[in-house]
Amino acid sequence: MKRTIFNNQLLPWLLLAPQLAITFIFFIWPAGQAIRQSFLREDAFGINSSFVGLRNFHGLLDSAQYLNSMKVTVIFAVSVTVVSMGVALLLAVAVDRMLRSSRVYTTLLVWPYAVAPAVAGILWWFIFNPTVGIMPYILDVIGYDWNHNRSKTDAMILVVIASAWKQISYNFLFFVAGLQAIPASLREAAAIDGAGPVRRFFDITFPLLSPTTFFLLVVNIVYAMFETFAVIDSTTGGGPAQATNIMVYKVYFDGFIGQNLGSSAAQSVILMMIVIALTVIQFRYVEKRVEY
Q: Which segments cross the bilayer (predicted)?
């Protein structure tokens, strides 16, 4: 492995400067501001502020609405992760079996990833719209009265489908790459030994996919907790009755709509700590079961 040596010690820092500046301006500085504001109580215009210590955090832990948003976030994140990864793995296995049309099939499945989250939310909102949508009409034929404006379950199903559909393409690409990296000789040897398709998948294919699965597990949890804001905002707006008001959407609603800046900042700090803790747990304990 070649090692690059810079004669000018300032040059490496100059090359890193654009990335360091972006990281500081868009990540470190906002995070620091959120932590500072979480200990303050400010008016709606941000003119007057007073130090309140941990009162914002105590108020959140005593709030039934905030505890509900945490519960909703857990249900939503687990559902989106399971659905998006499960469907993506199923489609990837199907592509791995198709030799001639696999490229066309892959291209068609990748397209949804290019759709913006807000557009994906509006698309599925129209499909499941109780008045003009096609899915409520089909469900009504089989005897199910769909209305995500009234039913908490229907609303959760809608946002899970819209969010998972957007992420399936991303997971699919990595699963296809992981399947193609598995030597065909291993599966052929198992087939010669008499192992069926299901046995070969769970005993050989899936264990060898564990590094890809672990990586996608981390990515999908972070996606469900942060990047699904636009989907929630364009479909249910956190309703009905706070049924889809996940933590990241509550940060926006309390901060920008309710103008409760201190509480909103405290919520963002808690959300950041939860995601960091989940990531550490996954890399510390879950990764030990990954076979590289």
A: 12-32, 74-95, 107-127, 206-226, 265-286
